[in-house]
Amino acid sequence: MHAEAQSVPFVLAAAGRTDVGRRRTENQDRILLGQVAYAVADGMGGHEAGEVASQLAVETMEELCTRAAKTSVPSLPTVQQVQRQVQLADDRIREALESRGGTTLCALVLIKASGQGRDSVTAPVAIPPWTQGFAAQGTTDVISKITPEMLEAHRRGQDPATAAMPVIEEVPNLALVNVGDSRGYRLRDGALQQLTRDHSAVQEMVDAGQITELEARNHPHRNLITRALGAGAESHPDITVLQPRIGDRYLLCSDGLSGELTEDLLQSLLVSYKDREVAAEVLTGAALEAGGRDNIAVIVIDVLAPPVPPGTATQAPAL
């Protein structure tokens, strides 16, 4: 497990798309756009087993969102709870399919900051009645606009628009979860970095110096993964704890995207298209144009500064 340095309060905004691709007849990819968890699952297995596996994976991860929203004070999971939830997904898939199918999983989850002794109220995880005006536009765009000040005001029974802004002492971390060859990337200061390592046969060949990254893209064993939920002996996740910065952009995707587009092209498109909905659509279209050999799943997640509540005084610019 890896960790990064402390960050500042933030909110997340995400958009996602899936596509069956040009060569498949069924879409076994699933995505989750939640208030706490965002996930891509790439199912595998015949006779609908892959669809069942990926659906069970995202439904199990969605329970992290459901539990957080039900608490009177928003409660984020710990990294240990996230790990247990992934194990639960593995157990459910194995029970349902008896190893007839499995799935990858790449997820980004809001978690309590390391060492926090109480529930965090610094993340948009609850859906109080007064937030209904912030409903996301469309089914593929989820915008978290609930600020720490609003949550604190709601807990105190105040009008969020007029409540005093509390001092924010704690901010949540992000846990990046990976099982299989679905990937997580981060765009920071215009540079794209792959944050996950593929659990695949070709990745092991690359690591051993037997083939190059370029050769791996078209290798006959490129679809052979060494770790999956619900199938095989290896299913434990890699988990990296991240501290995001305002302006970061995260990309979660199945190999239907990363297998068709180079990292340079991914970076160029993510930099060029600021609107996350448009970015997700353009990435999907580019993968289709490149061949669309597999199902495609894409989630683009932006890290934004919390909006200033209405009626809050702002400092005038210096003259």
Automatic annotation (TrEMBL):
Residues 14-303 form the PPM-type phosphatase domain. InterPro entries: PP2C, PPM-type-like_dom_sf, PPM-type_phosphatase-like_dom. PROSITE patterns: PPM_2 (PS51746). One of its GO terms (molecular function) is protein serine/threonine phosphatase activity. It comes from the Bacteria. PANTHER family: PROTEIN PHOSPHATASE. This is Serine/threonine-protein phosphatase. Pfam families: PP2C_2.
